[in-house]
Write a structure and sequence with these properties.
Layout lengths: L19 H21 L3 H7 L12 H21 L14 H24 L3 H25 L1 H6 L1 H20 L2
């Protein structure tokens, strides 16, 4: 016997907008990257102190707190981008654009993860500089992709971009001073 009930048109559900569990997952991913970098940077404090550094290099104790905050903003930015923009018309709350945004985000996070072992474990300052330059490009792509989804997501990445730009200049200076 055929079912004669009419199907209701599908409506967006709460599931189409990632909620708190997704934010917690993104935070876990970002802090896992931080933890892996920390393992790769074992003894980095001594290594950093032993390097010839420019006069504008920050003290080593500054890196941990700065990165702790930045990894949190990286995760929140991804969550906001996944959720899209509600009500302003400038973003897209549908699924359109989610995949490219998260591909860019994943690439920049992988390049972020690769930098620490290159710089500290391998003492490969030139390769680390190449990696951080690629990271800056991927981060620019992430900011553009996130901006198409939600302006706040892109804006949250600007302090990260500023810090990575500073870190790239520091990396280059250290490479030149120590080769």
């Amino acid at each position: 016997m055929a079912d004669l009930r009419r199907e209701e048109p599908s409506r967006p559900t709460r599931r189409s907008r990632p909620g708190w569990p997704t934010l917690l997952l993104l935070l876990a991913v970002c802090y896992a990257v931080a933890a892996l970098g920390s393992v790769a940077a074992a003894g980095s404090g001594e290594t950093y102190q032993a390097l010839d550094r420019p006069s504008w290099a920050p003290p080593g104790r500054l890196f941990g707190p700065v990165w702790t905050v930045l990894y949190g903003t990286i995760a929140v930015a991804a969550w906001l981008a996944l959720r899209g923009d509600r009500g302003s018309g400038s973003g897209d709350s549908s699924r359109t654009g989610r995949v490219p945004a998260m591909v860019w985000w994943s690439v920049q996070l992988a390049l972020n993860l690769a930098w620490t072992p290159l710089f500290f474990a391998a003492d490969a300052y030139g390769w680390a500089f190449a990696d951080i330059c690629l990271l800056l490009l991927a981060l620019a792509g992430t900011i553009v992709a996130f901006g198409r989804r939600r302006r706040a997501a892109a804006l949250l990445l600007l302090p990260y971009a500023a810090w990575v730009t500073y870190a790239a200049a520091l990396n280059l200076s250290i490479w030149l001073l120590n080769t």
